[in-house]
Specification:
Largest sheet: 7 strands, antiparallel
CATH superfamily of one domain: ATP-grasp fold, B domain
Distance between the termini: 30 Å
CATH class of one domain: Alpha Beta
Mean pLDDT: 95
Low-confidence stretches: none
Number of strands: 18
Strand content: 25-35%
CATH architecture of one domain: 2-Layer Sandwich
Number of helices: 6
Structural class: alpha+beta
Shape: globular
CATH topology of one domain: D-amino Acid Aminotransferase, Chain A, domain 1
Radius of gyration: 18 Å
Length: 283
């Protein structure tokens, strides 16, 4: 087993020509890994992703080969995957206006070049979901909005059309399922690559609390900050400390750690219908 990459949250290993994708308990906000981990976070992310990959298998092929054929030390928090040549575009679908999308809208009335109605407020539902891609790699080290024309210019119209349509389909199907369980998926980020046979494939993670915004439907009120079952809770806490968003990040207090873990656990249970067992598994 060869360690090939350490990301802010995930570690990649090569095993017999496959990729072992291991989700850690680390938490990253504003592109900075914080010094405090969240117990069970990696396993929750991994198993929620695996659940969604299986559910979306009829929509788009994915990179998962096995969630059980992994080293014992990574059981529950790793998946064996096909190597992919990743497309350097972060594919974001938005059904609600918040976060960076809200700031972009406030500045010029559009997000990634998509014109939106005037007068929208924080957490408003959009008339229909929109595709708002960002760069996967930029000179600043932060994601930056791209227009769809930028994506076409970078990867060609055929592939651009496919990743836009698939992103919106994955988001829509995921949002419909979550809504039945009282969860709003406000937005999500997914990634695609090509496998060894040139097949467009869904990779990385899908519809998790690190890659999506999850809100309780019964508490949704436009015009204010929403209760977050996702990483936004940690972002909001870190911003409240006065931290300047440059390394090193602040240590997370015990009460914020536990509240984050509870939120990740609750949304996992509500979406999947599984009861989470502390320590990295489900009943």
């Amino acid at each position: 087993m060869k360690h090939i990459h350490a990301g802010k949250v995930r570690d990649l290993y090569e095993v017999d020509g496959d990729i072992l994708l291991v989700a850690s308990d680390r938490v990253s906000v504003y592109d900075v890994s914080l010094p405090t981990s969240i117990p069970d976070k990696g396993a929750l992310l991994n198993q929620l992703s695996a659940w969604w990959f299986e559910k979306m298998a009829g929509v788009v092929p994915n990179h998962v080969l096995s969630t059980t054929d992994v080293p014992a030390e990574f059981a529950g928090r790793a998946m064996r995957c096909k190597p992919l040549k990743m497309i350097q575009v972060e594919c974001i679908a938005r059904g609600y206006l918040t976060g960076l999308g809200m700031r972009e809208y406030q500045r010029d009335g559009k997000v990634s070049g998509v014109e939106l109605p005037a007068g929208l407020v924080e957490a408003d539902k959009l008339p229909e979901p929109i595709f708002t891609p960002t760069t996967k790699i930029s000179d600043t080290g932060h994601d930056e909005f791209m227009t769809f024309a930028d994506v076409v210019n970078d990867i060609g119209k055929e592939t651009a059309d496919r990743i836009r349509d698939l992103t919106l389909e994955v988001y829509t199907k995921g949002a419909e399922h979550a809504a039945k369980n009282g969860i709003i998926i406000a937005d999500t980020k997914i990634e695609f690559g090509f496998d060894a046979d040139g097949v467009l494939t869904l990779g990385d993670e899908v519809l998790t609390s690190d890659s999506s915004r999850f809100w309780p439907a019964d508490d949704w009120r436009p015009g204010r900050t929403q209760h977050a079952f996702d990483k936004q809770f940690v972002r909001d806490w870190s911003a409240s400390t006065g931290w300047d968003k440059t390394p090193p990040g602040p240590a997370i207090p015990d009460e914020i750690v536990e509240a984050t873990r509870r939120r990740y656990t609750e949304v996992y249970e509500r979406i999947t219908g599984n009861s989470w067992v502390p320590g990295g598994g489900h009943a």
